[in-house]
Write a structure and sequence with these properties.
Number of helices: 10
CATH architecture: Alpha-Beta Complex
Strand content: 5-15%
Oligomer: single chain
CATH topology: Nitrile Hydratase, Chain A
Radius of gyration: 18 Å
Helix content: 40-55%
């Protein structure tokens, strides 16, 4: 575990304030909860992860960018226009044939919003935050990802100082794909490490 400061209490308080405000505004008929849910869903699964997918796809096709990502992920990602709160201190970790990385925040829910959007509910849940450190292979298998014994699994603990982006292994059979086609194969879970990039359609 890290001794770095996290934001658990601040985030919990903020969540409570947001929920209270949402309740009041809903009761007064000023907002539609369904519309709020749709906005959250968009940022959680579409807008943010598309940024990260673009980063991954470029790393797959551009060796110079890949090297820059390894050296200074914050600067490399910023060069694509993806900057902002929760993305100030980034580190990229790379999956391969014998190496698999997975990300967690054990004390709260530090997460790179600028490239992945809003964190999924399970990422913030106590069971995930505790179990993935102690039994990562079992947790990954529950996500449908079973790794061979020859694959080393490394768990990275995000903090207020650094947040991680997993660069999944490029799928086979994609040699002729451009960046846009490659980005379509990159999922949010593959950039957290709880999944792999999608295989191309036959």
């Amino acid at each position: 575990m890290h001794d770095h400061p996290h934001h658990g209490s601040e985030l919990d308080e903020m969540t409570a304030r947001v929920k209270a405000l949402e309740t009041i505004l809903t009761e007064k008929g000023l907002i539609d909860p369904a519309a709020i849910d749709e906005i959250v869903e968009t940022y959680e699964t579409k807008v943010g992860p598309r940024n990260g997918a673009a980063v991954v796809a470029r790393a797959w096709v551009d060796p110079d960018f890949c090297a820059a990502l390894k050296e200074d992920a914050t600067a490399a990602i910023a060069s694509m226009g993806f900057t902002g709160r929760q993305g100030e201190h980034m580190q990229a970790v790379f999956n391969g044939k014998t190496q698999h990385n997975v990300v967690v925040c054990t004390l709260c829910s530090c997460y790179p919003w600028t490239v992945l959007g809003l964190p999924p509910v399970w990422y913030k849940s106590p069971p995930y935050r505790s179990r993935v450190v102690l039994e990562p292979r079992k947790v990954l298998s529950e996500f449908g990802l079973t790794l061979g014994d020859d694959v080393e699994v490394t768990v990275w603990d995000s903090t207020a100082e650094v947040r991680y982006l997993v660069i999944p292994e490029r799928p086979a059979g994609t040699d002729g794909f451009d960046s846009a086609a490659l980005a379509d194969l990159v999922t949010r879970d593959s950039m957290i490490g709880t999944g792999l990039a999608l295989e191309p359609a036959p």
